[in-house]
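Hi all, posting the design record for the shared folder.

TITLE: backbone redesign
STEP: 1 of 1
STRUCTURE INPUT:
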């Protein structure tokens, strides 16, 4: 029987779009439930389900573009283990945060706080300030990965009544604050999918140098091999 893991890259073309649409529907349903019914617990759980689905869409998209996604260690668990998709989401979040940090460093105005008579001291201290400011997006990403660590438990808390020394009722345990925080993290994972979708779009070659695109893809492949093996 055919499954995600034994479909060729060529036959996988376009499948990610159906997965994305399902992920988007889950997110839209979560938004509707939160805004209309104020049921933030159920909405939060649906958001987390949508994040699991969008990670799956990313994996299938990468496979369809020739990446060795399914040959990696633990690949068999990608489509059956929800927790490993949360780990992959952490990787995506950290990658996005690192990219944002580099982008911030390249675009921010150089610090001019230190202006002593010692030029070397000014350059050193102002450079350190530049690095500190540019690192903010990555530090925020690290904080978000801590939230992703608890996604599976949070999803269950939103759906089920539990008892841990006291009765844990979903609508009491999870409120609007948790929903909004989860929504922000999930939105970022969706943006990563959209980035990859643009990266592999044929029209991109008309706007960027082909060698640069291929070099970026090769770097991405290398990063994935190094990091996913650790999950």
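Okay, here is what came back for every position:
SEQUENCE:
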């Amino acid at each position: 029987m055919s499954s995600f893991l034994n479909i060729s890259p060529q036959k996988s073309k376009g499948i990610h779009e159906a997965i994305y649409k399902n992920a988007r529907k889950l997110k839209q349903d979560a938004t509707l439930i939160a805004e209309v019914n104020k049921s933030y617990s159920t909405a939060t759980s649906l958001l987390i389900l949508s994040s699991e689905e969008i990670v799956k869409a990313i994996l299938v998209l990468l496979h369809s573009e020739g990446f060795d996604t399914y040959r990696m260690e633990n690949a068999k668990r990608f489509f059956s283990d929800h927790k490993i998709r949360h780990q992959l989401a952490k990787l995506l979040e950290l990658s996005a945060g690192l990219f944002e940090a580099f982008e911030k460093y390249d675009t921010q105005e150089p610090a001019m706080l230190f202006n002593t008579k010692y030029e070397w001291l000014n350059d050193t201290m102002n450079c350190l300030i530049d690095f500190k400011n540019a690192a903010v997006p990555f530090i925020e990403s690290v904080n978000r990965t801590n939230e992703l660590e608890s996604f599976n438990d949070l999803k269950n808390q939103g759906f089920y009544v539990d008892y841990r020394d006291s009765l844990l009722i979903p609508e009491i345990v999870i409120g609007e604050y948790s929903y909004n925080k989860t929504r922000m993290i999930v939105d970022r994972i969706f943006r990563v999918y959209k980035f990859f979708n643009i990266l592999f779009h044929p029209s991109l070659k008309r706007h960027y140098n082909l060698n640069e695109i291929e070099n970026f893809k090769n770097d991405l492949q290398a990063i994935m091999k190094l990091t996913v093996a650790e999950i």
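COMMENT: The chain has one domain: 4-90+151-228.
Let me know if anyone wants the other runs.
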